[in-house]
Amino acid sequence: MIRPSLTQALLFLFALVCWQQPAVSADLKVDVELVLAVDVSLSMDSYEQKMQLQGYVAAFRDPQVLRAIATGPRKRIAVIFVEWGGVEFQNIKVPWALIDGEASARKFADLLGQRRLTALPLTSISTAALFSATLFEKNGFEGTRQVIDISGDGPNNQGVIVTAARDAVVEKGITINGLPVMLRAGQAPGFFDLKNLDVYYEDCVIGGPGAFIVQVQDEKNFASAIRRKLIREISGAPPRVFHAQAPRPWNAPPRIDCQIGEKLWNEWLGYQD
Fold first, then answer.
1. What CATH number should be reported for the domain whose range is 29-272?
2. All structural domains of the chain with their residue ranges
3. What is the pTM of this model?
Protein backbone atom coordinates (compact mmCIF):
# COMPACT_ATOMS: atom_id res chain seq x y z
CA MET A 1 0.00 0.00 0.00
CA ILE A 2 1.07 3.61 -0.54
CA ARG A 3 2.81 5.31 2.38
CA PRO A 4 0.44 7.96 3.83
CA SER A 5 3.17 10.62 3.76
CA LEU A 6 3.62 10.21 0.00
CA THR A 7 -0.10 10.52 -0.66
CA GLN A 8 -0.30 13.62 1.50
CA ALA A 9 2.71 15.16 -0.21
CA LEU A 10 1.16 14.61 -3.65
CA LEU A 11 -2.17 16.13 -2.66
CA PHE A 12 -0.37 19.05 -0.99
CA LEU A 13 1.59 19.68 -4.18
CA PHE A 14 -1.62 19.67 -6.20
CA ALA A 15 -3.24 22.08 -3.72
CA LEU A 16 -0.31 24.47 -4.14
CA VAL A 17 -0.63 24.29 -7.91
CA CYS A 18 -4.31 25.19 -7.66
CA TRP A 19 -3.31 28.44 -5.94
CA GLN A 20 -0.92 29.48 -8.70
CA GLN A 21 -1.69 32.71 -10.54
CA PRO A 22 -3.03 32.57 -14.12
CA ALA A 23 -0.53 32.29 -16.94
CA VAL A 24 1.28 35.52 -17.75
CA SER A 25 0.72 37.25 -21.07
CA ALA A 26 4.16 36.16 -22.25
CA ASP A 27 2.99 32.56 -22.46
CA LEU A 28 2.55 31.39 -26.04
CA LYS A 29 -1.13 30.93 -26.90
CA VAL A 30 -2.04 27.52 -28.33
CA ASP A 31 -5.26 25.70 -29.13
CA VAL A 32 -4.69 22.94 -26.58
CA GLU A 33 -2.13 21.93 -23.97
CA LEU A 34 -2.06 18.14 -24.10
CA VAL A 35 -0.45 15.74 -21.63
CA LEU A 36 -0.01 12.24 -23.04
CA ALA A 37 0.17 10.07 -19.91
CA VAL A 38 1.09 6.53 -20.95
CA ASP A 39 0.89 3.41 -18.78
CA VAL A 40 4.16 1.46 -18.68
CA SER A 41 3.30 -0.70 -15.68
CA LEU A 42 4.29 -4.36 -15.65
CA SER A 43 0.84 -5.39 -16.92
CA MET A 44 1.69 -3.67 -20.21
CA ASP A 45 3.88 -6.30 -21.83
CA SER A 46 6.63 -5.35 -24.27
CA TYR A 47 4.45 -6.08 -27.28
CA GLU A 48 1.64 -3.79 -26.07
CA GLN A 49 4.15 -1.08 -25.22
CA LYS A 50 5.75 -1.36 -28.65
CA MET A 51 2.38 -1.13 -30.39
CA GLN A 52 1.43 1.87 -28.26
CA LEU A 53 4.67 3.72 -28.89
CA GLN A 54 4.56 3.05 -32.63
CA GLY A 55 0.99 4.34 -32.65
CA TYR A 56 2.00 7.69 -31.17
CA VAL A 57 5.02 8.01 -33.44
CA ALA A 58 2.85 7.32 -36.50
CA ALA A 59 0.14 9.71 -35.33
CA PHE A 60 2.44 12.73 -35.17
CA ARG A 61 3.58 11.97 -38.69
CA ASP A 62 0.06 11.51 -40.00
CA PRO A 63 -1.36 14.12 -42.43
CA GLN A 64 -4.77 13.97 -40.75
CA VAL A 65 -3.29 14.95 -37.39
CA LEU A 66 -1.32 17.75 -39.05
CA ARG A 67 -4.51 19.00 -40.71
CA ALA A 68 -6.31 18.99 -37.37
CA ILE A 69 -3.57 21.18 -35.93
CA ALA A 70 -3.59 23.51 -38.96
CA THR A 71 -7.35 24.03 -38.82
CA GLY A 72 -7.35 25.27 -35.21
CA PRO A 73 -7.76 29.02 -34.52
CA ARG A 74 -4.13 29.35 -33.46
CA LYS A 75 -2.82 26.53 -35.67
CA ARG A 76 -0.53 25.19 -32.95
CA ILE A 77 -0.65 22.94 -29.91
CA ALA A 78 1.64 22.08 -26.99
CA VAL A 79 2.32 18.43 -26.09
CA ILE A 80 4.26 16.56 -23.41
CA PHE A 81 4.79 12.78 -23.13
CA VAL A 82 4.76 11.17 -19.68
CA GLU A 83 5.18 7.55 -18.59
CA TRP A 84 3.69 6.30 -15.35
CA GLY A 85 3.37 3.23 -13.15
CA GLY A 86 2.90 3.24 -9.37
CA VAL A 87 2.79 6.26 -7.08
CA GLU A 88 6.56 6.76 -7.17
CA PHE A 89 6.94 6.41 -10.93
CA GLN A 90 6.02 9.31 -13.21
CA ASN A 91 8.66 10.14 -15.78
CA ILE A 92 8.66 12.90 -18.38
CA LYS A 93 10.08 11.27 -21.51
CA VAL A 94 9.55 14.11 -23.98
CA PRO A 95 9.18 17.59 -22.42
CA TRP A 96 6.70 20.25 -23.50
CA ALA A 97 7.01 20.91 -27.22
CA LEU A 98 5.29 23.31 -29.58
CA ILE A 99 3.82 21.63 -32.63
CA ASP A 100 2.87 24.08 -35.35
CA GLY A 101 3.55 22.16 -38.55
CA GLU A 102 5.12 19.13 -40.15
CA ALA A 103 8.70 19.86 -39.06
CA SER A 104 7.92 20.24 -35.35
CA ALA A 105 5.52 17.29 -35.40
CA ARG A 106 8.14 15.06 -37.02
CA LYS A 107 10.74 16.18 -34.48
CA PHE A 108 8.38 15.21 -31.65
CA ALA A 109 7.71 11.85 -33.32
CA ASP A 110 11.45 11.25 -33.74
CA LEU A 111 12.03 11.93 -30.03
CA LEU A 112 9.31 9.45 -29.15
CA GLY A 113 10.80 6.90 -31.48
CA GLN A 114 14.14 7.09 -29.68
CA ARG A 115 12.58 6.16 -26.33
CA ARG A 116 13.44 2.78 -24.83
CA LEU A 117 10.66 0.61 -23.47
CA THR A 118 10.20 0.83 -19.70
CA ALA A 119 8.58 -1.45 -17.15
CA LEU A 120 7.41 0.10 -13.87
CA PRO A 121 5.66 -1.61 -10.95
CA LEU A 122 2.00 -1.14 -9.99
CA THR A 123 -0.71 1.04 -11.53
CA SER A 124 -1.64 4.41 -10.07
CA ILE A 125 -3.96 6.19 -12.48
CA SER A 126 -4.82 8.64 -9.72
CA THR A 127 -1.19 9.68 -9.24
CA ALA A 128 -0.73 9.96 -13.01
CA ALA A 129 -3.72 12.33 -13.21
CA LEU A 130 -2.59 14.50 -10.28
CA PHE A 131 1.01 14.62 -11.50
CA SER A 132 -0.09 15.46 -15.05
CA ALA A 133 -2.26 18.32 -13.78
CA THR A 134 0.77 20.02 -12.22
CA LEU A 135 2.56 20.07 -15.58
CA PHE A 136 0.33 22.82 -16.98
CA GLU A 137 1.70 25.37 -14.54
CA LYS A 138 4.47 27.66 -15.79
CA ASN A 139 5.03 25.55 -18.89
CA GLY A 140 5.30 28.58 -21.20
CA PHE A 141 1.96 27.95 -22.93
CA GLU A 142 -1.58 29.19 -22.57
CA GLY A 143 -4.10 26.87 -24.18
CA THR A 144 -7.76 27.38 -24.90
CA ARG A 145 -8.13 23.89 -23.43
CA GLN A 146 -6.05 21.75 -21.09
CA VAL A 147 -6.33 18.00 -21.62
CA ILE A 148 -4.79 14.94 -19.95
CA ASP A 149 -4.88 11.79 -22.07
CA ILE A 150 -4.46 8.66 -19.92
CA SER A 151 -3.86 5.28 -21.53
CA GLY A 152 -3.68 1.99 -19.66
CA ASP A 153 -4.63 -1.67 -19.55
CA GLY A 154 -5.82 -2.02 -15.96
CA PRO A 155 -7.56 -0.32 -13.05
CA ASN A 156 -6.01 1.85 -10.36
CA ASN A 157 -4.44 -0.29 -7.62
CA GLN A 158 -2.28 2.16 -5.69
CA GLY A 159 -2.49 5.72 -4.43
CA VAL A 160 -5.53 7.85 -3.68
CA ILE A 161 -8.93 6.71 -4.92
CA VAL A 162 -9.10 7.35 -8.66
CA THR A 163 -12.42 9.22 -8.53
CA ALA A 164 -11.05 11.61 -5.90
CA ALA A 165 -8.06 12.42 -8.12
CA ARG A 166 -10.31 12.79 -11.17
CA ASP A 167 -12.64 15.20 -9.39
CA ALA A 168 -9.74 17.31 -8.09
CA VAL A 169 -8.29 17.63 -11.60
CA VAL A 170 -11.64 18.35 -13.27
CA GLU A 171 -12.41 21.02 -10.69
CA LYS A 172 -9.41 22.93 -12.03
CA GLY A 173 -10.98 23.02 -15.51
CA ILE A 174 -8.87 20.23 -16.96
CA THR A 175 -10.38 17.46 -19.09
CA ILE A 176 -9.25 13.83 -18.70
CA ASN A 177 -9.69 11.51 -21.69
CA GLY A 178 -8.93 7.80 -21.77
CA LEU A 179 -7.44 5.12 -24.01
CA PRO A 180 -8.26 1.77 -22.35
CA VAL A 181 -6.08 -0.95 -23.86
CA MET A 182 -8.16 -4.14 -24.03
CA LEU A 183 -6.15 -6.46 -26.25
CA ARG A 184 -6.68 -9.33 -23.82
CA ALA A 185 -10.41 -8.76 -23.33
CA GLY A 186 -12.35 -12.02 -23.28
CA GLN A 187 -9.34 -14.12 -22.30
CA ALA A 188 -9.14 -15.90 -18.96
CA PRO A 189 -8.82 -13.05 -16.43
CA GLY A 190 -5.90 -12.78 -14.05
CA PHE A 191 -5.75 -10.78 -10.87
CA PHE A 192 -5.30 -7.46 -12.66
CA ASP A 193 -7.25 -7.99 -15.87
CA LEU A 194 -10.61 -6.26 -16.15
CA LYS A 195 -12.90 -7.42 -18.93
CA ASN A 196 -14.99 -4.23 -18.90
CA LEU A 197 -12.08 -1.82 -18.60
CA ASP A 198 -13.86 0.57 -20.97
CA VAL A 199 -16.71 0.96 -18.47
CA TYR A 200 -14.19 1.51 -15.68
CA TYR A 201 -12.48 4.27 -17.67
CA GLU A 202 -15.80 5.93 -18.54
CA ASP A 203 -17.19 5.87 -15.01
CA CYS A 204 -14.07 6.22 -12.86
CA VAL A 205 -11.23 7.82 -14.84
CA ILE A 206 -12.36 10.36 -17.45
CA GLY A 207 -14.03 13.65 -16.65
CA GLY A 208 -14.44 17.29 -17.53
CA PRO A 209 -15.78 19.16 -20.57
CA GLY A 210 -16.03 16.90 -23.62
CA ALA A 211 -14.41 13.91 -21.93
CA PHE A 212 -14.37 10.69 -23.97
CA ILE A 213 -12.64 7.35 -24.38
CA VAL A 214 -11.33 5.45 -27.36
CA GLN A 215 -10.89 1.77 -26.61
CA VAL A 216 -8.34 -0.54 -28.23
CA GLN A 217 -9.49 -4.16 -28.59
CA ASP A 218 -7.60 -5.15 -31.73
CA GLU A 219 -3.86 -4.73 -32.25
CA LYS A 220 -4.53 -3.87 -35.90
CA ASN A 221 -6.48 -0.80 -34.78
CA PHE A 222 -4.01 0.45 -32.17
CA ALA A 223 -2.43 3.10 -34.37
CA SER A 224 -5.73 4.24 -35.88
CA ALA A 225 -7.30 4.51 -32.41
CA ILE A 226 -4.47 6.77 -31.22
CA ARG A 227 -4.73 8.88 -34.37
CA ARG A 228 -8.50 9.19 -34.01
CA LYS A 229 -8.17 10.17 -30.37
CA LEU A 230 -5.52 12.82 -31.04
CA ILE A 231 -7.55 14.38 -33.84
CA ARG A 232 -10.56 14.71 -31.56
CA GLU A 233 -8.47 16.16 -28.73
CA ILE A 234 -6.73 18.62 -31.01
CA SER A 235 -9.89 19.75 -32.78
CA GLY A 236 -12.03 19.92 -29.65
CA ALA A 237 -14.87 18.20 -31.52
CA PRO A 238 -17.99 17.08 -29.63
CA PRO A 239 -17.37 13.98 -27.50
CA ARG A 240 -18.11 10.47 -28.65
CA VAL A 241 -17.49 7.09 -27.10
CA PHE A 242 -16.11 4.75 -29.75
CA HIS A 243 -18.13 1.59 -29.13
CA ALA A 244 -21.69 0.35 -29.25
CA GLN A 245 -22.82 1.90 -25.98
CA ALA A 246 -24.36 5.36 -25.98
CA PRO A 247 -22.25 8.14 -24.46
CA ARG A 248 -23.05 8.93 -20.83
CA PRO A 249 -22.15 11.90 -18.65
CA TRP A 250 -18.76 11.37 -17.01
CA ASN A 251 -20.23 12.21 -13.59
CA ALA A 252 -23.18 9.82 -13.80
CA PRO A 253 -23.43 7.15 -11.07
CA PRO A 254 -20.76 4.50 -11.79
CA ARG A 255 -21.80 1.12 -13.18
CA ILE A 256 -18.67 -0.50 -11.79
CA ASP A 257 -16.79 -0.52 -8.50
CA CYS A 258 -14.23 2.27 -8.88
CA GLN A 259 -12.06 0.63 -6.21
CA ILE A 260 -11.97 -2.75 -7.95
CA GLY A 261 -8.27 -2.41 -8.73
CA GLU A 262 -7.37 -1.88 -5.09
CA LYS A 263 -9.49 -4.90 -4.12
CA LEU A 264 -7.81 -7.06 -6.76
CA TRP A 265 -4.42 -5.95 -5.48
CA ASN A 266 -5.29 -6.82 -1.88
CA GLU A 267 -6.64 -10.18 -3.08
CA TRP A 268 -3.37 -10.85 -4.85
CA LEU A 269 -1.37 -9.93 -1.74
CA GLY A 270 -3.48 -12.37 0.27
CA TYR A 271 -2.90 -15.05 -2.35
CA GLN A 272 0.87 -14.50 -2.14
CA ASP A 273 0.77 -15.01 1.63
1. 3.40.50.410
2. 29-272
3. 0.83
